[in-house]
Amino acid sequence: MGRLFLKLYSILVFVVVLYFIGIANLGTILNETLERYYGVLGKGTFVLLENRLKEIPTAQWPALIAEVNRGDGYDIGLLPMDSLTLPPAKIKRLSDGEMVVAERYGASHSYQRIAGSEWVLEFPFEQSEYQSNQRLSNSTFNLIEMQLQAQPAEVWPEALASLQGQFNFPIHLLQQDQLDLPAPLQKDLLNGKIAWQDIDGSTDYLFRRIADGPYVLKLGPFGPPLTLRYLEPILMGSLALLVALAVLFWVYPLWRDLKRLSASAELFGQGDFSVRAPLPKRSVLHHLAKSFNSMASRIQRLISSHKELTNAVSHELRTPIARLRFGMEMLQSSSNETDRSRYIQSMNADIDELDQLVAELLTYARFDRDRPALEFQRQKVAPWLNEVVRQVMTGNDGVLIDDDIDLKGAAYAYFEPKLMARALVNLLQNGQRYAQSRVQVTFATGQQGYRIMVDDDGAGIPEQERASVFEAFKRLDASRDRGTGGYGLGLAIVQRISQWHGGDVTVEDSPLGGARLTIFWPENAPSNSA
User: Fold this and answer.
1) Are 55 and 94 found together in one domain?
2) Which of 128, 217, 340, 383 is buried most, with the most CB atoms less than 10 Å from its CB?
Protein backbone atom coordinates (compact mmCIF):
# COMPACT_ATOMS: atom_id res chain seq x y z
CA MET A 1 0.00 0.00 0.00
CA GLY A 2 2.88 2.35 0.83
CA ARG A 3 4.27 2.36 -2.71
CA LEU A 4 0.79 2.81 -4.22
CA PHE A 5 0.06 5.68 -1.84
CA LEU A 6 3.39 7.41 -2.53
CA LYS A 7 2.97 7.02 -6.27
CA LEU A 8 -0.51 8.57 -6.32
CA TYR A 9 0.44 11.23 -3.81
CA SER A 10 3.53 12.20 -5.84
CA ILE A 11 1.38 12.57 -8.94
CA LEU A 12 -1.10 14.81 -7.11
CA VAL A 13 1.71 16.92 -5.59
CA PHE A 14 3.23 17.31 -9.05
CA VAL A 15 -0.14 18.49 -10.38
CA VAL A 16 -0.55 20.95 -7.48
CA VAL A 17 2.96 22.34 -8.06
CA LEU A 18 2.19 22.81 -11.74
CA TYR A 19 -1.02 24.57 -10.73
CA PHE A 20 0.81 27.05 -8.50
CA ILE A 21 3.46 27.63 -11.16
CA GLY A 22 0.62 28.44 -13.53
CA ILE A 23 -0.88 30.81 -10.96
CA ALA A 24 2.50 32.54 -10.61
CA ASN A 25 2.76 33.00 -14.36
CA LEU A 26 -0.83 34.18 -14.39
CA GLY A 27 0.30 37.20 -12.36
CA THR A 28 2.42 38.40 -15.29
CA ILE A 29 -0.52 38.08 -17.66
CA LEU A 30 -2.82 39.95 -15.25
CA ASN A 31 -0.22 42.68 -14.80
CA GLU A 32 0.01 43.20 -18.55
CA THR A 33 -3.79 43.31 -18.75
CA LEU A 34 -3.92 45.87 -15.93
CA GLU A 35 -1.33 48.03 -17.67
CA ARG A 36 -3.43 48.14 -20.82
CA TYR A 37 -6.59 48.83 -18.81
CA TYR A 38 -5.06 51.56 -16.63
CA GLY A 39 -3.37 53.02 -19.68
CA VAL A 40 -6.76 53.48 -21.35
CA LEU A 41 -8.29 54.96 -18.16
CA GLY A 42 -5.48 57.44 -17.46
CA LYS A 43 -4.66 58.46 -21.01
CA GLY A 44 -6.77 61.62 -21.01
CA THR A 45 -5.56 62.71 -17.55
CA PHE A 46 -1.93 62.21 -18.49
CA VAL A 47 -2.23 64.11 -21.78
CA LEU A 48 -3.88 67.08 -20.10
CA LEU A 49 -1.36 67.16 -17.26
CA GLU A 50 1.64 66.71 -19.58
CA ASN A 51 0.46 69.56 -21.79
CA ARG A 52 0.10 71.89 -18.75
CA LEU A 53 3.55 70.92 -17.42
CA LYS A 54 5.19 71.66 -20.77
CA GLU A 55 3.74 75.19 -20.65
CA ILE A 56 5.55 76.15 -17.42
CA PRO A 57 9.12 75.91 -16.13
CA THR A 58 10.20 72.74 -14.37
CA ALA A 59 10.59 74.61 -11.07
CA GLN A 60 6.83 75.31 -11.06
CA TRP A 61 5.83 71.69 -11.63
CA PRO A 62 5.45 70.77 -7.90
CA ALA A 63 3.09 73.72 -7.41
CA LEU A 64 0.98 72.62 -10.37
CA ILE A 65 0.86 69.04 -9.05
CA ALA A 66 -0.24 70.34 -5.63
CA GLU A 67 -2.99 72.36 -7.32
CA VAL A 68 -4.14 69.29 -9.25
CA ASN A 69 -4.24 67.24 -6.01
CA ARG A 70 -6.70 69.61 -4.29
CA GLY A 71 -9.63 67.77 -2.77
CA ASP A 72 -10.09 64.25 -1.35
CA GLY A 73 -8.86 62.17 -4.29
CA TYR A 74 -5.70 60.11 -4.60
CA ASP A 75 -2.63 62.31 -4.99
CA ILE A 76 -0.76 62.27 -8.29
CA GLY A 77 2.99 62.06 -7.67
CA LEU A 78 5.87 63.75 -9.48
CA LEU A 79 9.02 61.67 -9.02
CA PRO A 80 12.55 61.77 -10.44
CA MET A 81 13.25 58.91 -12.80
CA ASP A 82 16.24 57.77 -10.77
CA SER A 83 14.17 57.52 -7.55
CA LEU A 84 12.11 54.62 -8.85
CA THR A 85 12.91 51.10 -7.64
CA LEU A 86 11.29 49.24 -10.51
CA PRO A 87 12.70 46.20 -12.35
CA PRO A 88 15.13 47.10 -15.19
CA ALA A 89 12.66 45.86 -17.81
CA LYS A 90 10.02 48.34 -16.60
CA ILE A 91 12.55 51.18 -16.35
CA LYS A 92 13.43 50.55 -19.99
CA ARG A 93 9.77 50.61 -20.99
CA LEU A 94 9.32 53.91 -19.12
CA SER A 95 12.32 55.35 -20.95
CA ASP A 96 10.70 54.28 -24.22
CA GLY A 97 7.56 56.28 -23.33
CA GLU A 98 5.36 53.34 -22.33
CA MET A 99 3.08 53.19 -19.31
CA VAL A 100 3.93 50.59 -16.65
CA VAL A 101 2.02 49.33 -13.63
CA ALA A 102 3.68 48.37 -10.34
CA GLU A 103 2.70 47.87 -6.74
CA ARG A 104 3.82 50.40 -4.15
CA TYR A 105 2.94 49.84 -0.52
CA GLY A 106 0.44 47.19 -1.56
CA ALA A 107 -1.46 49.42 -4.01
CA SER A 108 -1.40 49.51 -7.81
CA HIS A 109 0.22 52.58 -9.36
CA SER A 110 0.80 53.46 -12.98
CA TYR A 111 3.86 55.38 -14.10
CA GLN A 112 4.36 57.50 -17.20
CA ARG A 113 7.45 59.46 -18.15
CA ILE A 114 7.03 63.10 -19.13
CA ALA A 115 8.42 63.34 -22.64
CA GLY A 116 11.77 65.12 -22.89
CA SER A 117 12.43 65.04 -19.14
CA GLU A 118 13.71 62.80 -16.35
CA TRP A 119 10.50 63.12 -14.38
CA VAL A 120 7.78 60.53 -13.98
CA LEU A 121 4.12 60.97 -13.12
CA GLU A 122 2.68 58.49 -10.62
CA PHE A 123 -1.06 57.72 -10.79
CA PRO A 124 -2.48 55.73 -7.82
CA PHE A 125 -5.53 53.56 -8.51
CA GLU A 126 -6.31 52.50 -4.94
CA GLN A 127 -5.45 53.37 -1.38
CA SER A 128 -2.04 52.05 -0.46
CA GLU A 129 -1.08 50.34 2.75
CA TYR A 130 1.00 53.44 3.53
CA GLN A 131 -2.06 55.69 3.32
CA SER A 132 -4.14 53.20 5.27
CA ASN A 133 -1.61 53.15 8.12
CA GLN A 134 -1.42 56.94 8.11
CA ARG A 135 -5.19 57.29 8.47
CA LEU A 136 -5.52 54.50 11.03
CA SER A 137 -2.79 55.92 13.31
CA ASN A 138 -3.63 59.61 12.94
CA SER A 139 -6.05 59.74 15.88
CA THR A 140 -3.61 57.76 18.07
CA PHE A 141 -0.82 60.24 17.39
CA ASN A 142 -3.18 63.15 18.05
CA LEU A 143 -4.31 61.78 21.43
CA ILE A 144 -0.77 61.01 22.58
CA GLU A 145 0.36 64.44 21.45
CA MET A 146 -2.52 66.12 23.33
CA GLN A 147 -1.60 64.16 26.47
CA LEU A 148 2.04 65.23 26.25
CA GLN A 149 1.42 68.90 25.38
CA ALA A 150 -0.72 69.27 28.49
CA GLN A 151 2.49 68.79 30.54
CA PRO A 152 5.97 70.32 30.50
CA ALA A 153 8.41 68.80 28.01
CA GLU A 154 10.68 67.70 30.88
CA VAL A 155 8.17 65.12 32.12
CA TRP A 156 7.24 63.76 28.69
CA PRO A 157 9.39 60.61 29.06
CA GLU A 158 7.70 59.75 32.38
CA ALA A 159 4.25 60.56 30.99
CA LEU A 160 4.92 58.41 27.95
CA ALA A 161 6.09 55.54 30.23
CA SER A 162 2.79 55.71 32.13
CA LEU A 163 0.86 55.57 28.84
CA GLN A 164 2.81 52.52 27.65
CA GLY A 165 0.69 50.19 29.78
CA GLN A 166 -2.39 51.12 27.75
CA PHE A 167 -0.89 49.94 24.44
CA ASN A 168 0.23 46.51 23.29
CA PHE A 169 3.00 47.98 21.10
CA PRO A 170 6.04 50.09 22.09
CA ILE A 171 5.89 53.91 22.20
CA HIS A 172 9.12 55.92 22.04
CA LEU A 173 9.98 59.60 22.23
CA LEU A 174 13.03 60.44 20.11
CA GLN A 175 14.95 63.46 18.95
CA GLN A 176 14.61 64.04 15.22
CA ASP A 177 18.36 63.89 14.71
CA GLN A 178 18.36 60.38 16.27
CA LEU A 179 16.38 58.98 13.36
CA ASP A 180 17.97 57.20 10.43
CA LEU A 181 15.21 57.27 7.83
CA PRO A 182 15.27 57.37 4.04
CA ALA A 183 14.99 60.79 2.45
CA PRO A 184 11.31 60.42 1.38
CA LEU A 185 10.32 59.57 4.97
CA GLN A 186 12.37 62.44 6.35
CA LYS A 187 10.53 64.73 3.96
CA ASP A 188 7.15 63.43 5.17
CA LEU A 189 8.17 64.12 8.77
CA LEU A 190 9.25 67.68 7.95
CA ASN A 191 5.89 68.24 6.23
CA GLY A 192 4.04 67.08 9.37
CA LYS A 193 2.94 63.80 7.84
CA ILE A 194 3.02 60.35 9.35
CA ALA A 195 5.95 58.30 8.03
CA TRP A 196 5.64 54.55 7.72
CA GLN A 197 8.72 52.37 7.66
CA ASP A 198 8.38 48.74 6.57
CA ILE A 199 11.40 46.55 7.31
CA ASP A 200 11.65 43.26 5.39
CA GLY A 201 7.88 43.14 4.97
CA SER A 202 7.43 41.84 8.53
CA THR A 203 8.15 44.78 10.90
CA ASP A 204 6.39 48.16 10.78
CA TYR A 205 7.17 51.51 12.45
CA LEU A 206 5.20 54.77 12.42
CA PHE A 207 6.73 58.22 13.04
CA ARG A 208 5.33 61.77 13.47
CA ARG A 209 6.74 65.04 14.75
CA ILE A 210 5.17 66.63 17.80
CA ALA A 211 3.95 70.01 16.52
CA ASP A 212 6.94 71.74 14.94
CA GLY A 213 9.39 70.75 17.68
CA PRO A 214 12.46 68.54 17.61
CA TYR A 215 10.69 65.54 19.13
CA VAL A 216 9.30 62.61 17.17
CA LEU A 217 6.86 59.94 18.37
CA LYS A 218 7.76 56.42 17.25
CA LEU A 219 5.14 53.66 17.40
CA GLY A 220 6.05 50.04 16.87
CA PRO A 221 7.22 47.61 15.88
CA PHE A 222 3.91 46.12 14.83
CA GLY A 223 4.77 42.47 14.35
CA PRO A 224 2.04 40.44 12.69
CA PRO A 225 0.26 37.76 14.78
CA LEU A 226 2.00 34.40 14.89
CA THR A 227 -0.79 32.82 12.82
CA LEU A 228 -0.48 35.44 10.08
CA ARG A 229 3.31 35.27 10.15
CA TYR A 230 3.23 31.57 9.32
CA LEU A 231 -0.03 31.66 7.39
CA GLU A 232 1.49 30.64 4.05
CA PRO A 233 3.37 27.61 5.45
CA ILE A 234 0.27 26.64 7.42
CA LEU A 235 -1.91 26.86 4.32
CA MET A 236 0.59 24.87 2.23
CA GLY A 237 0.90 22.24 4.95
CA SER A 238 -2.88 22.04 5.28
CA LEU A 239 -3.23 21.63 1.53
CA ALA A 240 -0.61 18.87 1.52
CA LEU A 241 -2.39 17.15 4.44
CA LEU A 242 -5.78 17.39 2.75
CA VAL A 243 -4.36 15.99 -0.49
CA ALA A 244 -2.73 13.16 1.47
CA LEU A 245 -6.00 12.38 3.25
CA ALA A 246 -7.87 12.43 -0.06
CA VAL A 247 -5.36 10.04 -1.61
CA LEU A 248 -5.45 7.82 1.48
CA PHE A 249 -9.26 7.83 1.44
CA TRP A 250 -9.17 6.57 -2.17
CA VAL A 251 -6.19 4.22 -1.84
CA TYR A 252 -7.14 2.44 1.39
CA PRO A 253 -10.34 0.74 0.08
CA LEU A 254 -8.46 -0.21 -3.09
CA TRP A 255 -5.56 -1.64 -1.08
CA ARG A 256 -7.97 -3.45 1.26
CA ASP A 257 -9.88 -5.02 -1.64
CA LEU A 258 -6.65 -5.97 -3.41
CA LYS A 259 -5.47 -7.62 -0.20
CA ARG A 260 -8.74 -9.57 0.08
CA LEU A 261 -8.53 -10.62 -3.54
CA SER A 262 -4.88 -11.62 -3.12
CA ALA A 263 -5.69 -13.65 0.00
CA SER A 264 -8.57 -15.41 -1.80
CA ALA A 265 -6.34 -16.20 -4.78
CA GLU A 266 -3.64 -17.57 -2.46
CA LEU A 267 -6.11 -19.82 -0.61
CA PHE A 268 -7.54 -20.98 -3.91
CA GLY A 269 -4.05 -21.79 -5.15
CA GLN A 270 -3.47 -23.85 -2.00
CA GLY A 271 -6.43 -26.07 -2.83
CA ASP A 272 -9.38 -24.41 -1.07
CA PHE A 273 -11.66 -24.32 -4.11
CA SER A 274 -14.65 -23.08 -2.11
CA VAL A 275 -13.02 -19.71 -1.32
CA ARG A 276 -14.48 -16.58 -2.93
CA ALA A 277 -13.55 -12.89 -2.94
CA PRO A 278 -16.36 -11.11 -1.02
CA LEU A 279 -16.06 -7.60 -2.44
CA PRO A 280 -19.03 -5.19 -2.28
CA LYS A 281 -20.61 -3.85 -5.46
CA ARG A 282 -19.36 -0.33 -4.75
CA SER A 283 -15.73 -1.53 -4.86
CA VAL A 284 -13.70 -0.49 -7.93
CA LEU A 285 -12.45 -4.09 -8.05
CA HIS A 286 -15.96 -5.55 -8.01
CA HIS A 287 -15.83 -6.66 -11.65
CA LEU A 288 -12.40 -8.25 -11.14
CA ALA A 289 -13.66 -10.07 -8.04
CA LYS A 290 -16.77 -11.15 -9.94
CA SER A 291 -14.59 -12.60 -12.70
CA PHE A 292 -12.40 -14.35 -10.10
CA ASN A 293 -15.43 -15.81 -8.35
CA SER A 294 -16.88 -16.98 -11.65
CA MET A 295 -13.58 -18.60 -12.57
CA ALA A 296 -13.31 -20.21 -9.13
CA SER A 297 -16.86 -21.59 -9.43
CA ARG A 298 -16.12 -23.07 -12.84
CA ILE A 299 -12.87 -24.64 -11.65
CA GLN A 300 -14.53 -25.98 -8.50
CA ARG A 301 -17.37 -27.40 -10.54
CA LEU A 302 -14.95 -28.94 -13.01
CA ILE A 303 -12.78 -30.52 -10.31
CA SER A 304 -15.84 -31.76 -8.44
CA SER A 305 -17.21 -33.19 -11.66
CA HIS A 306 -13.92 -34.90 -12.41
CA LYS A 307 -13.80 -36.40 -8.93
CA GLU A 308 -17.38 -37.57 -9.26
CA LEU A 309 -16.66 -38.90 -12.72
CA THR A 310 -13.58 -40.77 -11.50
CA ASN A 311 -15.47 -42.33 -8.61
CA ALA A 312 -18.41 -43.25 -10.81
CA VAL A 313 -16.22 -44.66 -13.57
CA SER A 314 -14.31 -46.83 -11.11
CA HIS A 315 -17.62 -48.10 -9.74
CA GLU A 316 -19.14 -48.73 -13.17
CA LEU A 317 -16.03 -50.46 -14.52
CA ARG A 318 -15.62 -52.72 -11.50
CA THR A 319 -18.74 -54.79 -12.20
CA PRO A 320 -18.14 -55.75 -15.89
CA ILE A 321 -14.43 -56.31 -15.23
CA ALA A 322 -15.26 -58.62 -12.32
CA ARG A 323 -17.69 -60.49 -14.55
CA LEU A 324 -15.04 -60.77 -17.28
CA ARG A 325 -12.52 -62.14 -14.80
CA PHE A 326 -15.07 -64.62 -13.48
CA GLY A 327 -16.01 -65.66 -17.03
CA MET A 328 -12.35 -66.21 -17.97
CA GLU A 329 -11.80 -68.40 -14.92
CA MET A 330 -14.91 -70.43 -15.67
CA LEU A 331 -13.90 -70.68 -19.33
CA GLN A 332 -10.50 -72.08 -18.39
CA SER A 333 -11.92 -74.60 -15.95
CA SER A 334 -14.82 -75.78 -18.12
CA SER A 335 -14.56 -78.53 -20.74
CA ASN A 336 -18.23 -78.51 -21.74
CA GLU A 337 -18.65 -76.78 -25.10
CA THR A 338 -22.14 -75.55 -24.27
CA ASP A 339 -20.92 -73.91 -21.06
CA ARG A 340 -17.85 -72.51 -22.82
CA SER A 341 -20.06 -71.02 -25.51
CA ARG A 342 -22.29 -69.46 -22.85
CA TYR A 343 -19.30 -68.01 -20.99
CA ILE A 344 -17.86 -66.54 -24.20
CA GLN A 345 -21.25 -65.00 -25.05
CA SER A 346 -21.44 -63.49 -21.55
CA MET A 347 -17.93 -62.10 -21.86
CA ASN A 348 -18.78 -60.50 -25.22
CA ALA A 349 -21.79 -58.89 -23.58
CA ASP A 350 -19.55 -57.50 -20.85
CA ILE A 351 -17.16 -56.09 -23.47
CA ASP A 352 -20.12 -54.48 -25.28
CA GLU A 353 -21.19 -53.01 -21.97
CA LEU A 354 -17.71 -51.58 -21.47
CA ASP A 355 -17.78 -50.08 -24.98
CA GLN A 356 -21.17 -48.53 -24.31
CA LEU A 357 -19.96 -47.19 -20.96
CA VAL A 358 -16.89 -45.58 -22.57
CA ALA A 359 -19.10 -44.00 -25.25
CA GLU A 360 -21.46 -42.63 -22.57
CA LEU A 361 -18.52 -41.29 -20.55
CA LEU A 362 -17.07 -39.49 -23.57
CA THR A 363 -20.46 -37.98 -24.35
CA TYR A 364 -20.94 -36.84 -20.76
CA ALA A 365 -17.41 -35.40 -20.63
CA ARG A 366 -18.19 -33.37 -23.73
CA PHE A 367 -21.35 -31.95 -22.14
CA ASP A 368 -19.94 -31.53 -18.63
CA ARG A 369 -18.34 -28.14 -19.26
CA ASP A 370 -19.32 -24.50 -19.64
CA ARG A 371 -21.81 -23.64 -22.34
CA PRO A 372 -20.10 -23.57 -25.75
CA ALA A 373 -20.98 -21.24 -28.61
CA LEU A 374 -24.41 -22.45 -29.74
CA GLU A 375 -26.05 -21.87 -33.10
CA PHE A 376 -29.68 -21.17 -32.23
CA GLN A 377 -32.12 -21.38 -35.13
CA ARG A 378 -35.76 -20.62 -35.76
CA GLN A 379 -36.91 -24.18 -36.33
CA LYS A 380 -40.17 -25.57 -37.72
CA VAL A 381 -41.31 -27.82 -34.89
CA ALA A 382 -43.43 -30.57 -36.54
CA PRO A 383 -40.85 -31.94 -39.03
CA TRP A 384 -38.09 -31.76 -36.44
CA LEU A 385 -40.12 -33.68 -33.82
CA ASN A 386 -41.29 -36.30 -36.30
CA GLU A 387 -37.70 -36.94 -37.42
CA VAL A 388 -36.45 -37.35 -33.83
CA VAL A 389 -39.30 -39.75 -32.98
CA ARG A 390 -38.66 -41.75 -36.15
CA GLN A 391 -35.00 -42.21 -35.25
CA VAL A 392 -35.83 -43.42 -31.75
CA MET A 393 -38.55 -45.83 -32.92
CA THR A 394 -36.25 -47.43 -35.53
CA GLY A 395 -35.18 -50.84 -34.21
CA ASN A 396 -37.40 -50.67 -31.13
CA ASP A 397 -40.91 -51.95 -31.64
CA GLY A 398 -41.60 -52.93 -28.03
CA VAL A 399 -42.93 -49.56 -26.82
CA LEU A 400 -45.13 -47.30 -28.92
CA ILE A 401 -44.17 -43.62 -29.13
CA ASP A 402 -47.30 -41.59 -29.78
CA ASP A 403 -46.60 -39.56 -32.90
CA ASP A 404 -49.88 -37.70 -32.57
CA ILE A 405 -47.84 -34.72 -31.42
CA ASP A 406 -49.78 -31.88 -29.77
CA LEU A 407 -48.20 -28.69 -31.09
CA LYS A 408 -50.84 -26.41 -29.49
CA GLY A 409 -50.38 -23.74 -32.15
CA ALA A 410 -46.56 -23.64 -31.90
CA ALA A 411 -45.47 -23.89 -35.54
CA TYR A 412 -41.93 -22.49 -34.91
CA ALA A 413 -39.50 -22.39 -32.00
CA TYR A 414 -36.04 -20.95 -31.38
CA PHE A 415 -33.40 -23.45 -30.18
CA GLU A 416 -30.24 -25.35 -31.09
CA PRO A 417 -31.71 -28.29 -33.12
CA LYS A 418 -28.87 -30.83 -32.73
CA LEU A 419 -28.47 -30.45 -28.97
CA MET A 420 -32.21 -30.32 -28.33
CA ALA A 421 -32.61 -33.46 -30.48
CA ARG A 422 -30.02 -35.19 -28.29
CA ALA A 423 -31.92 -34.19 -25.16
CA LEU A 424 -35.24 -35.39 -26.60
CA VAL A 425 -33.69 -38.70 -27.71
CA ASN A 426 -32.44 -39.28 -24.16
CA LEU A 427 -35.91 -38.59 -22.74
CA LEU A 428 -37.61 -40.87 -25.27
CA GLN A 429 -35.14 -43.70 -24.63
CA ASN A 430 -35.57 -43.22 -20.92
CA GLY A 431 -39.37 -43.40 -21.41
CA GLN A 432 -39.05 -46.56 -23.55
CA ARG A 433 -36.87 -48.13 -20.88
CA TYR A 434 -39.44 -47.77 -18.11
CA ALA A 435 -42.78 -47.61 -19.99
CA GLN A 436 -45.06 -50.63 -20.19
CA SER A 437 -46.43 -49.96 -23.65
CA ARG A 438 -46.72 -46.27 -24.49
CA VAL A 439 -44.72 -43.00 -24.61
CA GLN A 440 -46.27 -39.67 -25.63
CA VAL A 441 -44.52 -36.46 -26.76
CA THR A 442 -46.12 -33.01 -26.47
CA PHE A 443 -44.72 -29.66 -27.59
CA ALA A 444 -46.35 -26.49 -26.23
CA THR A 445 -45.69 -22.77 -26.03
CA GLY A 446 -46.93 -20.11 -23.63
CA GLN A 447 -45.96 -16.95 -21.77
CA GLN A 448 -43.08 -18.72 -20.06
CA GLY A 449 -41.56 -20.01 -23.32
CA TYR A 450 -41.41 -23.47 -24.91
CA ARG A 451 -41.99 -26.91 -23.37
CA ILE A 452 -41.34 -30.47 -24.53
CA MET A 453 -43.16 -33.05 -22.37
CA VAL A 454 -42.41 -36.78 -22.53
CA ASP A 455 -44.95 -39.02 -20.72
CA ASP A 456 -44.80 -42.76 -20.14
CA ASP A 457 -47.16 -45.33 -18.59
CA GLY A 458 -44.52 -46.98 -16.42
CA ALA A 459 -44.14 -47.14 -12.65
CA GLY A 460 -43.16 -43.45 -12.37
CA ILE A 461 -40.49 -41.87 -10.21
CA PRO A 462 -40.96 -41.55 -6.43
CA GLU A 463 -41.27 -37.94 -5.33
CA GLN A 464 -38.38 -38.17 -2.88
CA GLU A 465 -36.04 -39.26 -5.68
CA ARG A 466 -37.05 -36.73 -8.34
CA ALA A 467 -34.52 -34.12 -7.26
CA SER A 468 -31.60 -36.51 -7.69
CA VAL A 469 -32.43 -38.28 -10.98
CA PHE A 470 -30.55 -35.62 -12.95
CA GLU A 471 -27.29 -36.24 -11.11
CA ALA A 472 -24.60 -38.05 -13.08
CA PHE A 473 -24.54 -41.84 -12.55
CA LYS A 474 -27.69 -41.64 -10.46
CA ARG A 475 -30.05 -44.54 -11.15
CA LEU A 476 -33.18 -45.76 -9.46
CA ASP A 477 -32.93 -49.08 -7.67
CA ALA A 478 -35.24 -50.77 -10.19
CA SER A 479 -32.87 -49.99 -13.07
CA ARG A 480 -29.67 -51.38 -11.62
CA ASP A 481 -29.47 -54.51 -13.69
CA ARG A 482 -28.20 -55.49 -17.11
CA GLY A 483 -31.69 -55.97 -18.46
CA THR A 484 -32.76 -52.39 -17.90
CA GLY A 485 -29.38 -50.90 -18.82
CA GLY A 486 -28.26 -47.29 -18.61
CA TYR A 487 -25.56 -45.57 -16.58
CA GLY A 488 -27.39 -42.61 -15.14
CA LEU A 489 -25.86 -40.10 -17.59
CA GLY A 490 -28.76 -39.50 -19.98
CA LEU A 491 -30.82 -37.22 -17.73
CA ALA A 492 -27.69 -35.34 -16.59
CA ILE A 493 -27.00 -34.52 -20.25
CA VAL A 494 -30.64 -33.44 -20.72
CA GLN A 495 -30.35 -31.06 -17.78
CA ARG A 496 -27.12 -29.55 -19.10
CA ILE A 497 -28.62 -28.93 -22.57
CA SER A 498 -31.70 -27.35 -20.96
CA GLN A 499 -29.51 -25.03 -18.92
CA TRP A 500 -27.54 -24.04 -22.01
CA HIS A 501 -30.87 -22.91 -23.49
CA GLY A 502 -31.55 -20.81 -20.39
CA GLY A 503 -34.14 -23.28 -19.04
CA ASP A 504 -34.33 -26.48 -17.00
CA VAL A 505 -35.90 -29.94 -16.86
CA THR A 506 -38.42 -31.17 -14.29
CA VAL A 507 -40.13 -34.41 -13.22
CA GLU A 508 -43.78 -34.85 -12.25
CA ASP A 509 -46.57 -37.38 -12.46
CA SER A 510 -47.84 -38.23 -15.94
CA PRO A 511 -51.50 -38.43 -16.99
CA LEU A 512 -50.56 -41.82 -18.46
CA GLY A 513 -49.75 -43.13 -15.00
CA GLY A 514 -45.95 -43.02 -15.12
CA ALA A 515 -43.53 -40.08 -15.13
CA ARG A 516 -43.60 -36.84 -17.08
CA LEU A 517 -40.24 -35.21 -17.85
CA THR A 518 -40.51 -31.65 -19.16
CA ILE A 519 -37.87 -29.54 -20.86
CA PHE A 520 -38.69 -25.84 -20.84
CA TRP A 521 -36.72 -22.79 -22.06
CA PRO A 522 -37.57 -19.13 -22.75
CA GLU A 523 -38.44 -17.72 -26.16
CA ASN A 524 -35.48 -15.33 -26.01
CA ALA A 525 -32.77 -17.97 -26.18
CA PRO A 526 -29.30 -17.08 -24.85
CA SER A 527 -26.74 -15.42 -27.10
CA ASN A 528 -24.38 -17.42 -29.26
CA SER A 529 -21.32 -16.47 -27.21
CA ALA A 530 -19.73 -19.00 -24.96
Assistant:
1) yes
2) 217
